[in-house]
Amino acid sequence: MSDTDTQPISELEELVFDSDGRRVAFTLDEELYPRDAILGAAYLFIDRCFVFLARPADRLVQVRLKGKTDDADLEAIAGEFANALLDQVVRFRVSQSTGKLREYAFARAFFTTPAQSSIDQLLAELDDEELEEDDLEVSVPWSQ
Amino acid sequence: MTLQFSRSLYDVAAVEATVAAFAALATWSVSEDESGIKVEMRDPSGDIDDLADHFANHVLHTSITMTRRAALGAQQ
Q1: pTM
Q2: How many CB atoms lie within 10 A of CB B63?
C-alpha cells in the first residue's frame, strides 16, 4: 500500500457487539450530539428495539440497543439510529437558531391587538379609493 | 438484578411511575445515590421475556415524555 492510500474508516468500527450478538453499543460525545437530540433519536427507536442510555463519563452518552427478536439486524438498526440522530441534531440546531424569531412571531401574532385586521384594513382602503372623486373618470371608463 | 439509570438522562419520577406500572410483574426497589438511580428487580414473572429491558424502555419513554411536557409547560 502506498503512502497516498487512505484506509477507509468504517463508521461501524465504533460499534461494540455483545457476545450473544443481541446487543450493540456505541458512545456519543454530547459536544457533537446534544442530549436532547440523543433523547429524540432514542424515542424514535423505542418501539423497534430496547434502548438503554448510560453515562460512562462527563459529556459522554453510551447508547445500547438490543433487538426485540433474535434475528434483528442490529448493524442496520444502529446505522438507522445514527441517521436519525443526525436528523435530530439538525432539528435541534435549527430550533435553537430560530428560537428568538419564532417567539417574536408568536408573540406578535397572539399578543398584539390591532384595531383592524389587515384584510379589513385593505377593504377599507379600497372603499376609500372608490369614494374619492374622479373628475376625469379615468379610473372607471369600462364600467359604463 | 440491578438496573442503574443516570440521573442526567432519566427522570426519577419516570422510574417511580414505571415501578408502579410494572408492580405486578416483579418486586422492585428504588434507591438513589451519587452515581444515579438504582432499581433492583426481584422475583420477576416468568411470563415475560426481557422484563428488565421492557422496564428500561418504559422508563426511557416516560422520562422523555415528562421532559417534553415540562419544557412545553415552561414555554407557556
Answers
A1: 0.72
A2: 24
